[in-house]
Write a structure and sequence with these properties.
about 400 residues, two-stranded antiparallel sheet, 14 helices, about 0% strand, transmembrane helix, phosphate transmembrane transporter activity, Phos_transporter, transmembrane
């Protein structure tokens, strides 16, 4: 029976890792994909490598935290309860991925583990309270920082990086499958600024993927590791491999949602979102908080779209030739800035918020990002409180 339960636990951990790959690839590389810097295949490959690096380096520390600090008694994690927790986590994440919405693996996993601890009377409420407080603060910070950047500084960033919406027919970096092995191909660029901006947004996406590996690997393997039946290193490798499979398959839907459906992301916007989100996530990870970078990234995208749409052009903007959100900092076809008269005409038609971020998609994302952790938490509590075979 123990061997059977262990096998089930391993399979469920793989299922959770698969869904983590689907859920977290979008926030990390959705901006780069939406800006046509890289294709979905390249994003999945980068996600797989960077996530594994984060999981194998800093990941063990986070595993120890989730497996030990949140519950006062680690013996609560039996093979049966650990497999059940992982099944609840994986099922809830799959619900979000099926809807094409990247959900917070940290909130989902912590909610399920907390429900187990509450049902067993071993939950450390002080630790949970600190985590939840930062979960509430971080998305608000991301939204307003991105909103301020979009409202006041985005035009200059756009002019500096200079990549228009819809100018590319194919990604800047793509993979060609000719020959024995696939090889990356870099398309022609409009200049060093575009190439430099592309490098920046991909590098920051890699940083976010690395940060995801440091925290989210625990969500897949911590309950199983807490049983003491398996060593940590094999679990980290297994979880990383499962994440890679998810990144190459189910993540395509979340990449589409984060890169295109919520808001149209030119390269400068992609960089803004990636920098703000990664800065918040890395800062929280540094103080031991399992950061929900899915929600931080999503709210940064929404905040940036709102800031760009709500920006009111000033006489100084017109005199300088800086545009309103529809053509912020645009360059003419010959590489020169449009004339002040042309800019004045464009600024006269400032768009509504709906033209820069889709309210219906935004509402769907925000609702699902709250529904999925709630489903995991309530489901786990009902399971461990009222189903006799899981009772304590």
């Amino acid at each position: 029976m123990s061997a059977l339960l262990l096998g089930v636990g391993v399979l469920v951990a793989v299922f959770v890792g698969y869904n983590i790959g689907g859920s977290t690839t979008g926030p990390a590389f959705g901006p780069a994909v939406g800006a046509d810097v890289i294709g979905k295949g390249v994003a999945a490959a980068l996600m797989s490598v960077c996530f594994a690096l984060g999981a194998l380096t800093v990941g063990p520390e986070v595993v120890e935290t989730l497996a030990g600090d949140l519950l006062r008694d680690q013996s609560v994690f039996t093979l049966r309860s650990s497999a059940a927790v992982l099944l609840v986590i994986g099922g809830a994440l799959f619900l979000g991925n099926y809807a094409g919405v990247p959900t917070s693996t940290s909130m989902t996993a912590v909610g399920a583990v907390a429900a187990l601890g509450f049902a067993a009377g071993e939950l450390d409420r002080a630790v949970l309270g600190e985590i939840v407080t930062w979960w509430l603060v971080a998305p608000v910070v991301g939204f307003w920082v991105a909103g301020v950047v979009g409202r006041y500084w985005y035009p200059r960033l756009h002019a500096w990086l200079a990549l228009e919406d819809g100018r590319r027919e194919r990604p800047l970096v793509r993979v060609v499958s000719s020959g024995i092995t696939p090889r990356p191909v870099v398309e022609s660029t409009d200049g060093r600024r575009e190439l430099s901006g592309a490098i920046v947004v991909v590098a920051v996406g890699c940083l976010m993927a690395y940060a995801s590996g440091t925290s989210n690997i625990a969500n897949a393997v911590a309950p199983l590791y807490a049983t003491g039946e398996l060593e940590l290193d094999p679990l980290l490798l297994l979880g990383s491999a499962a994440v890679a499979v998810g990144a190459f398959t189910i993540a395509r839907r979340t990449l589409e949602t984060l890169g295109n459906d919520i808001t149209a992301l030119p390269l400068p916007a992609a960089i803004v979102v990636a920098v703000i989100s990664s800065a918040i996530v890395v800062s929280l990870s540094a103080v031991g908080i399992p950061a929900s970078f899915v929600i931080v990234a999503t709210m940064s995208i929404v905040g940036l779209g709102w800031g760009r749409a709500s920006r009111t052009p000033t006489l100084t903007d017109v005199a300088r030739g800086e545009d309103a959100p529809t053509a912020v900092g645009a360059l003419a076809a010959d590489g020169e800035r449009d004339s002040p008269a042309s800019s004045a005409q464009e600024t006269a038609d400032a768009p509504e918020a709906a033209s820069l971020f889709d309210p219906s998609t935004t509402a769907r994302v925000v609702v699902m990002q709250n529904v999925v952790p709630i489903v995991a938490t309530v489901g786990a509590f009902v399971l461990f409180e009222f189903v006799p075979i899981f009772g304590h």
